[in-house]
Amino acid sequence: MLSDRTPGVYELIEKLEDTAYSGNFMFGHQNAGHIGVSIDAFDGTQSDVKNLVGKHPAVVGIDTLSFLGYEGTMDQLVKTVMQLHREGCIITLSSHMPNFSLGGDDFYDYSPNFTDGNVGPRILPGGDLNAKYLRFLDMIAEFARRCVDVDGEMIPMIFRPFHEDNGNWFWWGKKHLADDKFITLFRYTIDYLQNEKDITNFAYCYSPNGFFESREQYLKRYPGDDYIDLLGMDIYRDRPSEDDKFYEKMQESLMILWSLSLDHGKPYAITELGMRVLDSLEVGYYEGLAPHGNSIKNWYTEFLSFLSSFEAGTRCAYLLAWANFSDQQFWVPYEIKEKDGTVLFRHEMCDDFEAFCKDSRVILAP
């Protein structure tokens, strides 16, 4: 159950609520600040967004993968978070947790080389992997305590564990972990961080995968109002086409989210978003945007117009695009320049993204 937390957490939640009722949207980007295609500093001073439009995203996503040596290191991530906080960014921490039944750090569960290992019950109290899980949570607690502002106060963050739990691609998904066990694990995780480790600078987000057709579908694995501060949804537009009914299904899902937001007194956000080409060009395979030849070149302004076209859409506090890992796996357009300003590469959707960022409805970092 959520206990008293630092004043900064309540200020963060209030900012989300105020934005949701302003008709504006905060834009977020995963791993901005320490991973990107156009950056040459990895300490929070640069991002692909800032290099293109002059400001960081308002919301920056990070992940516990850095604790395990992926996506940087914990030391690097602490430095990045402190710098991003100084620049006015909201931090949201996701967690691609490893499969604790394995010797490695793989968080997926569909490999033909192993079964899911019944991970959930085994990491709960009484399970043979409980101590291993607590060591992982201890790393999260260490990270939270190390991220402090100029006054030495812990930086408030949105913690978003066990995302996309209604899918089957993670070990905490519905195929691998029963609904009641998932809820127990989610609550246990928060209780441990708060009550045993005294982590008071987290707001907590629940973010299953979209789309949704009913309130009951969304709430099936919901940990409860006593454990959640923010309602979320992850969604990608895969292989976009004119007849994919993406916006029709998206509107239905957001109307459900807004209805739940009103009834439960929680703001909502689109916690992962992107257009995912998932196609091969003559120069390779691309998971996110393609370097050229994208069928929808105005994706960002089109999505902004969609959100603004109905009331439930305008109540979204923020939308977070996925990360720019490389020139073959990126979700936000970018530009690469020489030190003298010479443009070496400019993605074909940069104009649209710049128009999106300049729109008065879109909020970036100060």
Short overview:
The chain has 366 residues and is an alpha/beta fold. It is 33% helix and 17% strand.
Please outline the helices and strands.
Elements: H1 7-20, E1 25-30, H2 48-53, E2 59-63, H3 74-86, E3 90-94, H4 119-123, H5 130-146, E4 157-160, H6 179-196, E5 202-206, H7 215-219, E6 230-238, H8 246-264, E7 268-276, E8 279-281, E9 284-286, H9 299-307, H10 311-314, E10 316-321, E11 335-337, E12 343-346, H11 350-358, E13 362-363
Helix pairs in contact: 9-11
Shape field = globular
Given this structure, which CATH class is correct? Alpha Beta
**Coarse structural class:** alpha/beta
CA-CA gap between termini: 34 Å
Largest sheet: 8 strands, parallel, barrel
Percentage beta strand: 15-25%
Q: Outline the low-pLDDT stretches.
A: 109-114
How many beta-strand runs?
Answer: 13
Order of helices and strands: HEHEHEHHEHEHEHEEEHHEEEHE
- Which strand order spans the largest sheet, edge to edge or round the barrel? 1-2-3-4-5-6-7-10
Give the radius of gyration: 20 Å
Helix share of residues? 25-40%
Q: Could you name the CATH homologous superfamily?
A: Glycosidases
Level-2 CATH architecture: Alpha-Beta Barrel
Explain how this protein is built:
- The protein is an alpha/beta fold.
- It has one domain: Alpha-Beta Barrel (TIM Barrel), CATH 3.20.20.
- It is built from 11 helices and 13 strands.
- α9 packs parallel to α11.
Features:
alpha/beta; 33% helix; two-stranded antiparallel ribbon; 366 residues
